[in-house]
Write a structure and sequence with these properties.
single chain; alpha+beta; Ubiquitin-like (UB roll); Creatine Kinase, Chain A, domain 2; six-stranded mixed β-sheet; 18 strands; 20% strand; globular
Length: 474
């Protein structure tokens, strides 16, 4: 869709406003809305000005003028506004017409351009499985003299004895007992179906939805794979629709990796593959899991660079509340076919040559998808260029339940960093693979590390409620 088609859509759909959006460093959307009669072909040529100094991690006040350049192919009708509104995703440029090196979407596009320049393939395909919770209530505060959080859900197993419901109807979801039960245990079938309906209207090709493992309203909706930047665009659309549909139902959705203690967290398993034209490059019939040597080298790159990569794929302090041994969130840097305890799983059920892919299970949805997908691709490409063999480096394949291995056996397996600070240290030491082809710049990486270190410090210096349980009587 070009600019002229967008303008025709505005007329045909009686659109009253056009919402121009971009994504910041942390992966959150921002927008400026123009009346539809103020949008013309020049808008798509000259862009929409905004103040970059007011966006965390972007620019200082002395160089704050920036430009959103609309991408007409991303347009869709907002399903939530009272007045008909068209949403258009934008890239960020400087006033002199240069792509802004801290714009996440531009980084994703440069990663795709770099793939083509290597001659390895023409397109990388991504498909994230982004899990979430839908709660009925959330309360939190962090102040000088108090700090707490509390979430509630009619599904929560802690509510089996609650009387405030006007007659407790039971059928709560047991801890770790929420994987694909039917109604009435799954109380959120209709809300997820409405999310799917709205996603389809907005152009997403949804494949399925279901309740996930945890109690208290954990769910998952899967949409079809696409190329790197388009998939990141789709994930931003996906999260927007989930957040706002939940709100329309009087509920609240969160993609936090670990909002509950003692039950499964929410991950973002990322399926990925490379094609050259119509030819899948990850498939080799009869090899281990039908994987080509190129695919194995791609796996080798991801596992080798994983400690640094995780600073971009799991970029929150809360990420490391999920990345603990014993849960489905894999902390073990090995690959295996059909094994959900490994960092990289190779799907083997009902897989065709074109469907042959790897699944990196460690990431979560606090990641900025443009940055995370670009970083994963660059790590994999580095593995291909350097012919990194994961088997030679002790990364598997390991076709065992890793959680049931002895302590001695586990000591032989590399693990993910134990905190955001550790991951940032790894990124500081290992990021040359990200700067290949100028995709990430040194300046971007330095700024990103400083931005995330500030977050980690904010958490580290605050008194934790559990410390009162441990130390108040000292």
């Amino acid at each position: 869709m070009g600019a002229q088609q967008v303008l025709e859509t505005i007329k045909e759909k009686n659109v009253q406003f056009v919402d121009f959006r971009f994504t910041d460093l942390a992966g959150r959307s921002h927008h400026i809305t123009l009346p539809a009669d103020q949008v013309d072909e020049d808008t798509f040529v000259n862009g929409v000005a905004f103040d970059g100094s007011s966006i965390p991690g972007f620019r200082g006040i002395e160089e704050s003028d920036m430009v959103m350049m609309p991408d007409p192919e991303t347009s869709y009708i907002d399903p939530f506004t009272e007045h008909p509104t068209l949403i258009v995703t934008c890239n960020i440029y400087t006033p002199d017409g240069e792509r802004y090196d801290r714009d996440p979407r531009s980084i994703a596009q440069k990663a795709e351009e770099y793939l083509k320049s290597t001659g390895i393939g023409t397109a990388a395909y991504f498909a994230p499985e982004s899990e979430f919770f839908i709660f009925d209530d959330v309360r939190f505060t962090s102040g000088m003299n108090k700090s707490f959080y509390e979430v509630d859900s009619e599904e929560g197993f802690w509510n089996t004895g609650r009387t405030e419901e006007g007659g407790n109807l039971g059928f709560k979801v047991r801890v770790k007992g929420g994987y694909v039960p039917v109604q009435p245990v799954d109380s959120q079938q209709d809300i997820r179906s409405e999310m799917v309906r709205l996603m389809q209207e907005a152009g997403l090709k949804v494949e399925r939805h279901h309740h996930e493992v945890a109690t208290a309203g954990q769910g998952e909706i899967n949409f079809r794979f696409d190329t790197l930047t388009k998939t990141a665009d789709n994930l931003m659309k996906y999260k927007y629709i989930i957040h706002n549909t939940a709100r329309q139902y009087g509920k609240v959705a969160t993609f936090m990796p670990k909002p509950l203690f003692g039950d499964n967290g929410s991950g973002m398993h990322v399926h990925q593959s490379i094609f050259n034209g119509d030819t899948p490059l990850f498939y080799e019939k009869g090899a281990y899991a039908n994987l080509s040597e190129l695919a194995l080298n791609y796996i080798g790159g991801i596992l080798f660079h994983a400690p640094a990569l995780i600073a971009l794929t799991n970029p929150s302090t809360n990420s490391f509340k999920r990345l603990v041994p014993g849960y489905e969130a894999p902390v073990n840097l090995v690959f295996s076919k059909g094994n959900r305890s490994a960092a990289i799983r190779i799907p083997v059920a009902a897989v065709t040559p074109k469907g042959c892919r790897i699944e990196f299970r460690t990431p979560d949805s606090t990641a900025n998808p443009y940055l995370a997908f670009a970083a994963m691709l660059l790590a994999g490409l580095d593995g291909i260029k350097r012919k990194i063999d994961p088997r030679a480096l002790g990364y598997g394949p390991l076709d065992k339940n890793i959680y049931e291995l002895s302590d001695e056996e586990k000591r032989e397996i590399r693990s993910v960093p134990g905190s955001l600070d550790e991951a940032l240290n790894a990124l500081e030491a290992d990021h040359e693979f990200l700067t290949a082809g100028g995709v990430f710049t040194e300046g971007f990486i330095e700024n990103y590390i400083a931005f995330k270190r500030a977050e980690a410090k904010d958490v580290a210096i605050r008194t934790h409620p559990h410390e009162y349980s441990l130390y108040f009587d000292c």
